[in-house]
Design brief:
Radius of gyration: 41 Å
Largest sheet: 4 strands, antiparallel
CATH topology of the domain at 20-98 and 157-192: S-adenosyl-L-methionine-dependent methyltransferases
Strand order of the largest sheet: 1-2-5-6
CATH class of the domain at 20-98 and 157-192: Mainly Beta
Low-confidence stretches: 126-156
């Protein structure tokens, strides 16, 4: 038997619809690069939007820590670190050494109170009294020295000495690495 002869299949030279493998791979690479660029841009924008809230939270925490330092007689300097929520913080106190300076203002005798002027009451205008001058030679009416509203010398507790300045420093570090530092001086009653 003789092999059968087959007729050659004609090859069509018409363009076929679809993409080649090279075109598909190039599209995937371009899409991957776009996703990488966009994800970096979004993460940068997200961290920039979150920064003010972190700084505000750190400042509020620092203020509350400073407010929590008690001004008690005979307070000793302290240092410490801790964590609250996602914030790390360090707090320290130290006694401030300073030399008191004399006041540049002239001293005013305590027994001579100021003279004040008051306006006349509405409807009380007219004749007799004039300018409504009153003079005082001591504390405000109805108060004793040391009471609120008095002009006399304020005396502290009998068992405390002169106040001692205490420097309080708080550094709060946010999760992003930003930090807030607050520092103040509190007057602590001195021990005798």
């Amino acid at each position: 038997m003789a092999p059968e002869a087959r007729a050659p299949v004609p090859v069509s030279r018409e363009p076929q619809a679809g993409f080649t493998l090279v075109e598909v791979l190039a599209a995937i690479v371009v899409a991957g690069l776009m996703v990488a660029v966009l994800s970096r841009a979004f993460s940068t924008a997200w961290s920039a939007a979150r920064a003010p809230a972190e700084i505000a939270g750190a400042a509020i925490l620092a203020q509350s820590l400073i407010a929590g330092v008690r001004a008690v007689p005979g307070a000793v300097p302290v240092r410490g670190t801790a964590r609250q929520g996602s914030f790390d913080y360090a707090i320290g106190t130290e006694i401030v050494d300073f030399e008191p300076r004399p006041s540049p203002a002239p001293s005013i005798p305590l027994d001579a109170g100021p003279t004040t002027r008051t306006a006349p009451a509405p409807g009380a205008g007219g004749g007799g009294g004039g300018g409504g001058e009153t003079s005082g030679t001591g504390p405000a009416a109805g108060t004793r020295p040391g009471e609120p509203g008095s002009r006399g010398p304020q005396t502290g507790r009998a068992d405390s000495g002169p106040p001692i300045p205490l420097r309080v420093t708080v550094v709060v570090k946010a999760p992003s690495g930003r930090s807030v530092r607050l520092e103040t001086v509190k007057l602590v009653p001195g021990a005798r």
